[in-house]
Amino acid sequence: MTIRLRLILSYIAMVLIPIFLTLLTAMVLTRVFFGTEDTSVRGGDGFQFHGHALSEFWEKINEREQLMNGVKFVAEQDPELLADPNFLADTGETLRELQAGLVIVRNGEVTYASADVDQEYLEAELARIDTAQEGHSRWMMSRGPEVGGRYTAERVDFTFDDQGVGTLYLLSDLNPLLGKMSRFMPLMFFSLLVIVAFTNLLLTFFVSRSILRPLYTLKRAAERIKEGELDHPLLMQRKDEFGEVGEAFEEMRERLKHSIHLQLQYEENRKEMLSNISHDLKTPITGIKACVEGLRDRVADTEEKRNKYITMIGQKADDMDRMIEELFLFSKLDLKRLPFDFEPVDVLGFLQSCSEELKADPRFAQVQIELITAVEGPLYAIADRDKLKRVLMNIADNSLHYMNKPDQRLSLELEASPREALVRIRDNGAGIDEAALPKVFERFYRAEASRSSSSGRGGSGLGLAIVRQIIEAHGGIVRADSRAGVGTAISFTLPLQTYSRTGGERK
């Protein structure tokens, strides 16, 4: 459940729960103040209504209303009964028990008044009833003017049989109801305040808890990361926004941990690289110094010896220049600062050209080089020709380091699919150990076999790492396959490009 939905539900609950609890409280207080009984009430028309848990109070109110309706019916249908003393006495007594009363006025004179009616203030009160709006007024009961009551009065005009003018006043005492309501309403209001306060506090507690707990969890995780503890995973196990934040935080932790691990690995690789470069540079420098000392001490006392020493100095300088160039090239590739000049390149023609160039290289004079392919026509890819040539030369140079057999062979193979070209350079050298094979494309990595090869030439450990950087910049992939004692095959792919017949646009 999202935080937004949780907040919306909490707002709805803040409205519905108080309403529900208020209704429940009202029912309980009604039972307490007005009593609870299962009774049956018969209406004035004889129809029986069955009420559940009706109080005695409301039963009296209903009975009083029915009796008053009966008196009004008598006034309309048989007004002479209102002049019968026995009928009036019985009706007045019944109304008195129901906390009501009646007054009969005939031709302007009061002919009957219930026993509870205060005779002293009767005429004034009747005048007030006649002038009051909707027949409501203040009634002073017979207990005295200092003790009053609240009532409702209803006036009914009728005519006696002798055409005398009659007026019926039906009086209903509200004191019992007002007495109960005076206690019911304040308690109900106080209950409403308690319910609203309790509901808001409860919902605020749970909603804030559901928000603060994940915040504290994130805070503790951030403090652990600040202290450098990156091995503790953050497990939110939530499906809301905090869960998404937790997943992003956990991904950040994993990436940071990987980044630090990679940084430490780079640092170790750099240290190893410095050691290797120092070793590899020291070897040709030592050779150059030996040749210079030989020339200085006139050990090379013939022209042939001097030329030999000078040739050795040139070779050692070339080795140093090659290692420095590879280091500089890899640094630019690693920093993404080496520009690429992409253009359409015929892969088949390019391999043919490289094959001829390798055959003419003195270093490969003892190596049998061949191009193997079933591709007949041009096969175009968008590539940087110079960088691609560097790839082939680095792979071929790496293969040369591993060749330790009298019959040395190097094959350039080309395969094609609808989407990419596959180039494979295969040799029959000593091969690479299975444990070292996954690491051959790592920066600064060198298998020991290459350092002790028959050629006597070590590498910087960057040749195949440069190959991977260049091929990945072309959108291809590179891999190595090798069998100890059989040989090694370095393969890479190049995405092919197609051209329309009319314009040569790239598709």
From TrEMBL:
Family annotation (SUPFAM superfamilies): ATPase domain of HSP90 chaperone/DNA topoisomerase II/histidine kinase, HAMP domain-like, Homodimeric domain of signal transducing histidine kinase
Source organism superkingdom: Bacteria
Segments passing through the bilayer: 7-34, 184-207
InterPro entries: HAMP_dom, HATPase_C_sf, HATPase_dom, His_kinase_dom, HisK_dim/P_dom, HisK_dim/P_sf, HssS/ArlS-like, Sig_transdc_His_kin-like_C
Compartments where located: Cell membrane
Residue ranges annotated for the HAMP domain, each copy included: 209-261
Record-level GO cellular component terms: plasma membrane
Keywords: ATP-binding, Cell membrane, Kinase, Membrane, Nucleotide-binding, Phosphoprotein, Transferase, Transmembrane, Transmembrane helix, Two-component regulatory system
PROSITE patterns the record matches: HAMP, HIS_KIN
Keyword Phosphoprotein: yes
Membrane topology recorded in Swiss-Prot or TrEMBL: Multi-pass membrane protein
Listed CDD domains: HAMP (cd06225), HATPase (cd00075), HisKA (cd00082)
Catalytic activity: ATP + protein L-histidine = ADP + protein N-phospho-L-histidine
The name this protein goes by in its record: histidine kinase
Upper taxonomic lineage: Bacteria, Bacillati, Bacillota, Bacilli, Bacillales
